Amino acid sequence: MHERISAYLSERIAANDFPSAVYLVAEKGRIVFRDAIGHSVVEPETIEARPDTIYDLASLTKPLVTGLLAAQQIEDGEIELRSHIGDVGVVFGDSRAASLTVQELAAHTSGLPAWLPFYLLAESPSPTHVSEVIAAQPLGPLGSRVEYSDLNFIALSLAIEGPRPDFEFDLAVAKELGLERTAFDPLEKGFERGEIAACEKGNAYERQTCVEQGYLQPSAAASGADRSSVFREYQIWGEVHDGNAWFMGGVAGHAGLFSTAEEVFKIALQFLPNYTRLLKAETCELFRTNFTKGLNEDRSFAFQLASTRDSTAGTQMPPESFGHNGFTGTSLWIDPVNDRVFILLTNRTHHHPLPFMNINSVRRRFHDLAIDALECSK
């Protein structure tokens, strides 16, 4: 542990930003600092967080699963950055979405909307019906701006991995790296609920979002009519928090992966040329390359870059550092210049009324404190 980092996160737990935090800071392939603070579960029972507590990684699934598997396929020559998803997958037919490229999806410049409630719009969670909803969306101007979107990685995953990215991930990543506490659908894989950090009780946030965006009438939301039964009322604990990923069976290209800080670190090393076991060094350049120069946000392949204004990287990371946040309160940032990895896992949606805390300032401060600590330890 590092006293200043742990003390700061303890302060944020006391301020009710989140009930628990597990962090890990590494340099040159070696873990330097780590700690577990607070309670991974507050209701219906109290469980202390441990270094090996399993967290719902939420959108960290995008780079750690879909981005990594896509990079492997690029390296193997199965797809290219310029490949149209309609040419590499069969689910989008001759729709306009079929002409979107791997790069446009991975860098969030496709013009697809940020989010849709597939559980209210799709006839079923089958790839065919999910892709039909995506294909029906009007596209904004291609490459004109970054619009961070779950749909980009749902579409990319359906095109290159099919309906079960977990099978591909288990074979190509988890087995190769010896991951033992990383999985989609952890309860189905035999993990005990007490090993896992809890999330929101019910889906009040998504229900409210659906009402605000006009997908659900307030009266229907209150009465449970019009398919609003898809909003879980119970404590979400051990199953994916994201409503679309849950609708799709707990396995999707944008969300659904659960893991620990240490095993996220093992995956994170695969993006660094000096430590990767799954990619060639030149392939790792994808993750630090700015594909959106001059746009509203700097994006590489599956990651945001630290050069983005107001990124959660903090004030001291090199601009080519890359990272990602997860809605449940998770984050991963990688500094390829100094071979550093920063992981912060929290469960900010648990035991907290709406609105949830925006913890971006916490993430920035955590990174600054961690870099200071690394520099002082030399």
Description:
It is a single chain. By secondary structure, the chain is α+β, with helices and mostly antiparallel strands. The chain has 2 domains: about 5-55 and about 260-375, Beta-Lactamase (2-Layer Sandwich), CATH 3.30.450; about 65-165, no CATH class. The chain has 13 helices and 10 strands. It has helices at about 5-15, 60-75, 85-90, 100-105, 120, 125-135, 150-160, 165-175, 205-210, 220-225, 245, 260-270, 360-375; strands spanning about 20-25, 30-40, 45-50, 55, 185, 255-260, 305, 320-325, 330-335, 340-345. Helix 1 (about 5-15) runs antiparallel to helix 13 (about 360-375) and helix 2 packs parallel to helix 7. The longest helix is centred in the last third of the chain and has 17 residues, at about 360-375. The mean pLDDT is about 95.
In short:
With 378 residues, the chain is of the alpha+beta class.
Average pLDDT across residues? 94
Helical element count?
A: 13
At the first level of CATH, the class of the largest domain is Alpha Beta
Q: Outline, from the CA principal axes?
A: globular
Percentage of β-strand residues? 5-15%
Q: SSE order in H/E notation?
A: HEEEEHHHHHHHEHHHEHEEEEH
Low-confidence stretches: none
Q: Describe the biggest sheet?
A: 7 strands, antiparallel
**Which class best fits the helix and strand makeup?**
alpha+beta
Q: Tell me the domain tally.
A: 2
Q: Helix fraction?
A: 25-40%
Give me the CATH fold name of the largest domain: Beta-Lactamase
Terminal residue distance: 16 Å
Based on DSSP secondary structure assignment, what is the total number of beta strands?
Answer: 10
Q: What is the radius of gyration computed over CA atoms, rounded to a whole number of angstroms? A: 20 Å
